[in-house]
Amino acid sequence: MKLFICLFLFGLVSHTALAQKSESKALYQQIAHLDSVMFQAYNQRDMATFKQFFTSDLEWFQDNGGLLHYDTVIANFQNIFNREYVLTRKLVPGTLEVHPIQNYGAIHIGRHTFSHVENGKLEVGEFKFLMIWREEQGKWKISRVVSYDH
After folding, report:
1. pLDDT at position 134
2. Cβ atoms of 60 and 68 closer than 8 Å
3. Burial of residue 45 (number of CB atoms within 10 Å: 0-12, 13-18, 19+)
4. What is the per-residue pLDDT for 21?
5. N vs C: which end of the chain shows fewer Cβ within 10 Å?
6. How many Å apart are CA 79 and CA 76, to the nearest integer?
7. pLDDT for res 69
8. For the chain, what is the mean pLDDT?
9. Which residues of the chain have pLDDT under 70?
10. For the chain, which residues make up each domain, given as ranges?
11. pLDDT number for residue 22
12. Residues 126 and 111 sit within 8 Å (Cβ to Cβ)
């Protein structure tokens, strides 16, 4: 009887672990896709699409700029889009982490580079970020951002 209980518990734990791994993989793929689509809009200076990725109660914590809210963040990005040079964002391969937040959404962590040519010289900066995604009725939006290591 003890052997049966042990085998049953082992099977239950194994099944749960596989289900969690499958859910984690699906969540990772979902957030990786959203990251790609969001920054494709960024790289194309498509503000109409880009700003749809953020909640209206957005809080953006910038290590060198403090706490910013939705209207300021969108205005700052619009200023970037209006510059003469094109600032391009790329996710650093192998740095993306995605972690679920029960009954809320996901944590999105990684590093990315921003590059542009200025005065004939390629300028590249690499920075760290943490984003909190909120999922509501199948729609994903970023509610919090921590941008650091500038």
Report:
1. 98
2. yes
3. middle
4. 54
5. N
6. 5
7. 98
8. 88
9. 1-23
10. 2-148
11. 52
12. yes
The rounded distance, in Å, linking the Cα atoms of 91 and 20 is 26
Give the class (CATH, top level) of 2-148.
alpha beta
Q: Are 130 and 114 in contact (CB under 8 A)?
A: no
pLDDT at 91: 97
Cβ–Cβ < 8 Å for 53, 39 = no
Indicate the residue type of 31. I
Two tokens at 33? Answer: 């896709």
Say if residues 147 and 63 touch (Cβ distance below 8 Å): yes
User: What is the DSSP code string of 71-89?
Assistant: HHHHHHHHHHHTSSSPPEE
Question: Which tens digit of pLDDT belongs to each residue from 51-60?
Answer: 999 999 999 9
Q: Residues 132, 137, 138, 140: what is their CA dihedral angle, to the nearest 10 degrees?
A: -30
Q: Are 89 and 42 in contact (CB under 8 A)?
A: yes
As given in the structure block, the two tokens for residue 150 are 């500038």
